Amino acid sequence: MPAKRELTMRQIRQMLRLHRDGVSAREIGRTLGVARSTVQDNLKRAAVAGLAWPLGAELTDDVLEQRLFARAGVRSGFRRRSEPDWAALARELKRPGVNLMVLWEEYRDGHPDGYGYSRFCDLFREFERRLSPVMRQHHAAGDKVFVDYSGKKIGIVDPETGVVRDAEIFVAVLGASNYTYAEATWTQTLSDWIGAHVRMFRFLGGVPRLVVPDNLKSGVHKASFYDPEINRSYGMMAAHYGVGVLPARPRKPRDKAKEEAGARAAPAGERDHAPSNSPAPRETSALSRSRPSNVRR
Fold first, then answer.
1. Are strands 210-213 and 244-245 parallel, antiparallel or unpaired?
2. CA dihedral 41, 46, 47, 53 (to 10 degrees)
3. 229-269: per-residue pLDDT in tens?
4. Residue 28 and residue 15: Cα distance in Å, rounded?
5. For the domain with range 1-78, which CATH number is right: 3.30.2390, 2.40.160, 2.60.120, 1.10.10?
6. pTM for this structure?
7. 144-286: CATH superfamily
8. Does 170 have pLDDT greater than 90?
9. Rounded distance, CA 184 to CA 168, Å?
10. Longest distance between any two alpha carbons in the chain, whole Å
């Protein structure tokens, strides 16, 4: 049988890097949250396998695991645990309210001896890279906020009549930190759309350089990569706050992948705004604190 391991491949890579930098096994254990003996055992395995930091690009997680933990008699590339249908999981992940934790819990319900959550995520990310390679987007702190309605609704109960009325969920995600703001509005009309932006800026304590909306009719009259036509009132709000508007390209969800992920993570029934005890990331300090252009000083 393959040797049992207690560290994820990500932790093993970090362990090798810290060991190269001269960090002791005790300190590495504290950093990774594991026993010193575990670190020492894995360092011995790496030495026997001839592995040292930096690792080559050809050493994927599967290859690294095979080099460190494989035993003689185990067929190369053979996984002893039950494999989920990764393609089906990728399709499921696009549905509102679905994330990797939900998919892993469903997988473990059917396969109690299956992969742990960390390994499950590693394998899924490897599958995604093979499925559709894309260039990683790098976002500077305070540069962009991605905004849209999540496509899901939340029921609001009138305390006097008991009548339930559906509301829309507005979601905004800062590009560099993934810091997410959400609130409920009755509609997606222009007044609610602009009002949600005003409250978002107030909550963040500043404005980014650019707002990246989807091509919602309340904000964008004509979608175009080169010359989009912004709603007049929406454009006036942007000018008021001194922020630019750069709509995502039509039918290009990866242009606003941050917001798409934030929308999936905001299920119906979630509270408005972020929890009051949720610490703001450092990115908020990079937002512009200048006053709106037409406010008297």
1. parallel
2. -130
3. 788 898 899 899 998 888 875 555 554 554 455 455 555 44
4. 6
5. 1.10.10
6. 0.49
7. Ribonuclease H-like superfamily/Ribonuclease H (3.30.420.10)
8. yes
9. 5
10. 78
